[in-house]
Design goal:
324 residues; 7 helices; elongated
Length: 324
């Protein structure tokens, strides 16, 4: 009995695969009869008993023909996976409650097609795919992200019941996959901005004179920047427009942990900060992030959004990151 855990580990071990691309060999493929296959074998046994009892030569021929068909189906199920080459890709970040998607490249070096391949993480949606002869396909395997931080989806099950559904062949694949899961954004009004005066502005070169265009107004935008004349010309639209200026004085928006409601729990406060980051990014604002013991300097753009959201995702997870 002591050897059973070792035997299970040898067959179904959860060690990560290190060498890529991974080629499926005979030691990595398992095959068992399905429920339909067991029923098929039972019917053949009953037919065989009847043929022996009544001495039916054609009955014996039919039974051996069907048995041979079942054996051929078993071989085809095995070879539908044998020699398949797999290469994992890089997964993008996701939000809590969304489906994180992990790319996997499947290559078929044979001249025959591979049909009805099924791939999935444990308890997650199944992705079915057919591979062309001497071709490849890249698929995105979905996995529900249930909590923030660095997310490891676990191993992938690659299975097939082709061609007759009498046997199920499968293999386990465990890449070194992970992705960052951000807190789920909670949309609340942005905190007020604080004016940041640059050196050029202090010397009298006013950046407020460098008009750069108009954009929809955000809750955090001061009323003095509203373009009233442009709004009057667009009276049929509800969104107010604000002026954008280049250089000189600018407005910095600090998304501070201390500005979130102190009566909320940590995860909800992180969700509020994530919602502020999304609103500030949509408004093309220059914003920074302050967390206890950590700060991300003010900036704008997609890189700033990713840096701030990653800081929220890894907050108090024990993983160290550099502040941007």
């Amino acid at each position: 009995m002591r050897q059973l855990p070792r035997l299970h580990q040898w067959f179904f071990g959860r060690r990560r695969d290190q060498q890529w691309p991974l080629v499926l060999g005979q030691r990595r493929i398992f095959i068992v009869p399905t429920a339909a296959g067991m029923l098929f074998a039972l019917v053949l046994m009953v037919m065989l008993i009847g043929a022996i009892n009544y001495d039916l030569s054609l009955g014996h021929a039919l039974i051996f023909l069907l048995a041979g068909l079942g054996l051929v189906a078993m071989v085809h199920s095995f070879h539908n996976l044998f020699g398949l080459r797999l290469t994992p890709g890089r997964a993008d970040a996701s939000f809590v409650g969304d489906l994180a998607r992990f790319p996997l490249q499947l290559d078929n070096p044979r001249r025959q097609q591979r049909r009805a391949l099924e791939l999935s993480f444990s308890g997650q949606p199944v992705v079915a795919v057919d591979l062309p002869a001497e071709g490849g396909v890249t698929i995105a395997l979905p996995c529900l992200a249930q909590r923030r931080g660095r997310f490891d989806p676990g191993r992938v099950t690659l299975a097939t019941r082709y061609p007759l559904g009498l046997f199920r062949a499968w293999s386990y694949i465990h890449p070194s996959w992970s992705c960052i899961v951000y807190p789920k954004p909670l949309r609340t009004p942005l905190p007020p901005v604080s004016p940041a005066i640059t050196a050029d502005h202090r010397q009298g070169d006013s950046g407020q004179e460098d008009f750069a265009g108009l954009r929809p107004r955000q809750v955090s935008d001061p009323t003095r920047h509203i373009a009233w004349k442009a709004v009057a010309r667009r009276s049929d639209e509800q969104a107010l427009l604000v002026k954008q200026f280049a250089g000189g004085a600018s407005d910095e928006l600090w998304l501070d942990w201390s500005l979130t409601p102190p009566d909320r729990d940590s995860e909800e406060r992180l969700s509020i900060l994530a919602g502020w980051i999304m609103l500030a990014d949509e408004g093309q604002a220059c914003y920074g992030l302050r967390l206890p013991g950590q700060q991300v300097a003010p900036a704008a753009g997609s890189a700033q959004r990713a840096s701030c959201l990653q800081a929220l995702a890894l907050y108090e997870t024990g993983e160290i990151r550099d502040a941007a």
